[in-house]
Fold each of these.
Amino acid sequence: MAHVLDLLLPQRCLGCGHPGAQVCVVCLACLPRIEPPMCTRCGAPTAWPVARCSECAGRRLAFASARAAVAYDDRVRRIVAGWKERGLRGIAARAAEIVAEAVPRPAAWLVTFVPPDDDRTLRRGHHPPERLARELAAVWELPVGRTLERRRASRRQQGLPLAERRRNVRGAFRTSGRVPSAVCLVDDVYTSGSTVAEAASALRAAGARKVLVVTFARAVR
Ligand SMILES: [Zn+2]
Ligand SMILES: [Zn+2]
């Protein structure tokens, strides 16, 4: 249904409302790219290259590294919200192009993604992290597969403080199928890192030695 509406309604840019493309050239050019220097571990922009930063120091993170293409500012927030809510088909390919420009091809055997909370995905009819993972896998010429499932529905992470976010997702994922030693884990937005850390820990428990997280956007404090 979402796709039919996309065809019938005049299109507007999700970022700025300008009539035309789903994301206009101005918005594409203005997306706040995350560039080095950054934290090697969690990908937060820093004043100089560091192995750990104030955001990730002292946290047990099951992933080896996290990288994102753009900072999660208001414009990016609107684009991601439109992508999630309206299931716009063109966005995943554009997002993947932007990620591929910013993030080097990960040294992984498989690209996988944070699975949907089923109710929400049914309502939306599609799942942005899976779309992004499939587009990136094509660009990087890597196999893509669903290895993670939700063990139970978790409350939305949005609006929860950090400690709550960790508790909310603890034990939320299980794996199915074969998990290779190095895996690239894709999600749409990195906020506190709690969700990808929990998903990475399920992949590690299933045999992955290295989990490399890649997201389209990242909250920057
Ligand atoms: Zn725009
Ligand atoms: Zn860090």
Note: The first helix runs from residue 2 to 8.
Amino acid sequence: MIVPFVDLKAQYRTIAAEVEAAMHRVVTDADFILGSDVEKFEQEFARFCEAENAVGLDSGTSALELALRAYGIGDGDEVITASHTFIATAAAISYTGARPILVDIDRDTYNIDSEQIEAAITPRTKAIVPVHLYGQPADLEPILSIARKHNLIVIEDACQAHGARYKGKSVGSLGDVGCFSFYPGKNLGAYGDAGMIVTNSKEVADKVRLLRNYGQPQKYQHVMMGYNRRLDSLQAAVLRAKLPYLEGWNDARRRAATLYDEMLEGVDEVGTPYCAEESAHVYHLYVIQHPKRDQLLQHLKDHGVYGGLHYPTPVHLQPCYEHLNKPAGSLPVTEAIASRVISLPMFAEITEEQIEYVCKQVKSFTSTTQF
Ligand SMILES: Cc1ncc(COP(=O)(O)O)c(C=O)c1O
């Protein structure tokens, strides 16, 4: 049996007619740039996130960068985030000219350790960027209270957490701005790159609208230095067709995660994901821990199961961040977790039979390996 890491073709087969009709509408109307599908998707996604405004962008990275820029964050500023994340979280901070200040994570949730944030605050700190990694909300309550105490902005990196909830509330709408990616493999994925910010501040939404479109409130009038970071109308049409399915897909991911949890329970040396009680996890990734994860990854591949590593090298140990002077050993939990995590196949359409097969292969590796 072959079990892919993600199966975008399986999803497409279930929604092909609606997606094709949506794309056809954009093409026949020649409504390609900031057309009505972009506007409608912004309204629909804002409603989904329980936020007042949404602005469509060309990627999740742009969402993070323009959210920071909307608050004037740039040269000389510092922004606190976790090192255990995709590089884009830190890169977006660097693009503005600010310095990412990377702190350690909680060993259960893999999200930023809120108890380590205050020690990282300096007079230059302007914002905190908690990442809802793998689809599990970061512990926002203490983060928001630290931010209020020190007058800092909170920009949620919700690029892996569409539909996740923290204490009953939708992620993305709890901080000052929520940033989403619609990269194809995400829980809500476009057919190319796409992104979005959501915010309850009309002022911030208006600023991001200017920043994404050359700083022009009207054609050929440029009130600030902006960029071309617009959400493409074709992608917006695809995303509109897919959005009504998102809750159902997230439920299917949760069911798949429960099956994995049950089948892997008690398997030697395997650590299954922890889900905080106050959170509704959306399992963008189903990540287990294993002391020999590189060999496990290879064993799975040899048996037709495609896993992934998210992420094998933390941001602070990447060559592009050498200048941050955070050597190996400086973030011990992050480094330990990064050496043990392995992501198993996870997508809404994964079958019970596929999950059984993956778990059988994990068990066969564990029973034949000496520790
Ligand atoms: C946590 C996180 N932040 C930011 C991004 C960047 O999103 P994009 O690839 O749409 O630029 C991603 C997407 O891969 C992500 O997983």
Note: Residues 182 and 189 are 4 Å apart (CA to CA).
Amino acid sequence: MKYREIRELIRLRPVELDRDRRVVSRCHDLADLRRAARRRLPGPVFDYIDGAADDEITLRANRAALRRWQFRPRVLRDVSEPDLSASLLGRGFSAPIGLAPAGYPRMMHPDGELAVARAAASRGLPYGLSTCGTVTIEELAATGHRDLWFQLYVLRDRKLSHALIDRAAAAGYRALEVTVDTPVGGRRTRDLRSGFTIPPELTVGTVLDIGMHPGYWMSMLRGPALRFASLNTPGAEVATSIADITSLFDPSLTWDDLEDIRARWPGMLLVKGPLGPADAARAVAAGADGIHLSNHGGRQLDRCIPTIDLVRPVREAVGGDVAVLVDSGIRHGADVAVAIARGADMCVVGRGYLYGLAAAGQLGVERAIDLLVEQLRRTMQLLGVVTIAELRRGGDELVVDPR
Ligand SMILES: Cc1cc2nc3c(=O)[nH]c(=O)nc-3n(C[C@H](O)[C@H](O)[C@H](O)COP(=O)(O)O)c2cc1C
């Protein structure tokens, strides 16, 4: 056979020279993005993202609880044009998916939160900046993203907490998410075992790791120093490490504090935690516009109830008009479909997009979003529904628990 004949038989795939494009083009689900993140990151940094509290029972239970649900599809419907758009808190989004607040994104990739906000904006989805963010409230707002939320850890120093609320309001953040499952920090066993610190300390292990992950370390060393950007103003460093941050958490927080925050914050208010129906109703009575059901992805109370199991009881307790969001364990568009059918308005994703960020910056986050959206679209089509409202109404007919 001549060379020309062989060439006609085999089409050569062009080699992608751009590293990030090459990485994302090989990721076909979020598990692939997780593997790509694992390859790029030093072990302790990967474990900081991937790990959870104590025995990681909740981490696994979140996935098991979501995977338990089975679909009972409708057939012979015209599903040629599914519409995934969703509304929440008076705003429209391209899909019922949000990006969760997370501490220290610039340790995962030098572009950190800016990359996440740009990816979220390009896909028409909301994004929450953490109190432990590595860019300031104002720097993130300057990206022009219209639907930024600010996640608040209420700190012992109430003046500092109030200053953060006021800055978020002044910078045009649309919602404040008050995290209520952190009276104290969870015990992250992987971090303790690996001796992980934020910021990373120079140990023999770190030096050896530089040889194993040169790309990561080069990009980190080129970027500006990592810091809790909104908490520390020049001349007033209140926290430089994770240990400092957790010591700022206030275990004496009560419902009165939530009412004070409501009175101070002019925008939409979400309460983020594993709220049962009674607490959810109480949060609404205290002025919350939405309940963000979250067990912190298993990073706080181990053996905590999987949040998917709270969706229906909370929806019944708060009624149809209050926004119900859910996170913890969402790794596939089919998980989003289950949550919507159980009564949620939106699913929020944490590690799913953080793996993408770590693997390939903004492109990686976009890939994570695109995969979730494509999976949700296909799931809806195979289920025989074409809108999010139809999926929600379909509820128990479409999604069944075989137990
Ligand atoms: C690395 C990491 C850092 C996080 N930091 C915060 C934080 O600063 N504030 C907060 O309210 N939640 C934080 N979370 C929890 C997320 O907002 C979200 O509830 C959780 O990741 C959802 O679970 P999932 O990772 O299984 O999607 C963090 C989660 C991860 C993985």
Note: The two ends are 60 Å apart (CA to CA).
